[in-house]
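[Automated response] Your request has been received and processed.

Submitted sequence:
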Amino acid sequence: MAEKTVWEGKPDWRQFAPPLIIAALFVTPALAHGHGGALLLFAIFVGIVALKRAQCNFKVTDQRIISQYGLISRRTGELDTRDIRVINVDQSIIQRLFGIGTLEFTTSSGPAKEVMIIGIKEPFVLKERIRALKQKNL
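Generated structure:
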């Protein structure tokens, strides 16, 4: 039976809102005083944030959870849905306001988070979809 993709995504842009807002707050006064270089600095900062987002790819199939990080070098974490023991949702106060969060998966091998899906919208919805997949695969 072929493996089917259930969900695929990247961190939501709102995950990066706090640093972007802080950068904008520093750039605005500089622009008001005629420092054009501040706009270039802000554009570079936005580019760095875009690259940070682009390097994260997450996929949930009907059999596995896969997280990939990196553009040039790559780090991949993979977890079979049958091996999942605990799915935690981690949300800071800012993330709760924006409706985003991080899913953390652990197995029976220990308390270490083996795979994480960071900064996604509606984390509780995805958590329940994965829980249903786990039950289906048992």
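Summary generated for your ticket: The longest strand covers residues 100-107. The chain has one domain: 5-137.
If you did not submit this request, please reply to this message.
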